[in-house]
Design brief:
This protein is mostly beta strands and 126 residues long. It has no helices and 11 strands.
C-alpha cells in the first residue's frame, strides 16, 4: 500500500513557476515508477509526466515538454514536478500517482496507476 500526499500548488501569474511535491509512504517507493496527471474543470484527467524507479528515465506530455521537469529523491520518498513558463491552460488539479509493479520503466496511462494522491490546485492567471 502506498499513500501519496501532494503539496506546492497555488496561484501564479502566467510565465511564473511552481514546484509540486508528492510525499509517499511505504518502503517500496524507490522501486516504483511515479507519474503526474492533471484535471481541468470539465475535462478528463490527463497525463503530464512520469519517471522510472531510479530516476534515469522520464517522459512528458507534448503540452508540457520543455517547460516541466519531473524528478525524484528516493532518500526522501518524494517526487517533484518543477513547472516553469506556466500558461493559463496549465490550470488544473494536479495529482501524483504510483503503480503497484516494481522496477518498471514508466507509465503514461491512467489505468497503469493504482494509487493516487488527493490532488493540489494550480491556478495560472493571465
Amino acid at each position: 500500500q502506498v499513500q501519496l500526499v501532494e503539496s506546492g500548488g497555488g496561484l501564479v501569474q502566467a510565465g511564473g513557476s511552481l514546484r509540486l511535491s508528492c510525499a509517499a509512504s511505504g518502503p517500496t517507493f524507490s522501486a516504483i515508477a511515479m507519474g503526474w496527471f492533471r484535471q481541468a474543470p470539465g475535462k478528463e484527467r490527463e497525463f503530464v509526466a512520469t519517471i522510472n524507479w531510479s530516476g534515469s528515465s522520464t517522459y512528458y506530455a507534448d503540452s508540457v515538454k520543455g517547460r516541466f521537469t519531473i524528478s525524484r529523491d528516493n532518500a526522501r520518498n518524494t517526487v517533484y514536478l518543477q513547472m516553469s513558463s506556466l500558461k493559463p491552460e496549465d490550470t488544473a488539479v494536479y495529482y501524483c500517482a504510483a503503480p503497484s509493479t516494481y522496477y518498471s520503466a514508466y507509465y503514461t496511462e491512467r489505468s497503469e496507476y493504482d494509487y493516487w494522491g488527493q490532488g493540489t490546485q494550480v491556478t495560472v492567471s493571465s
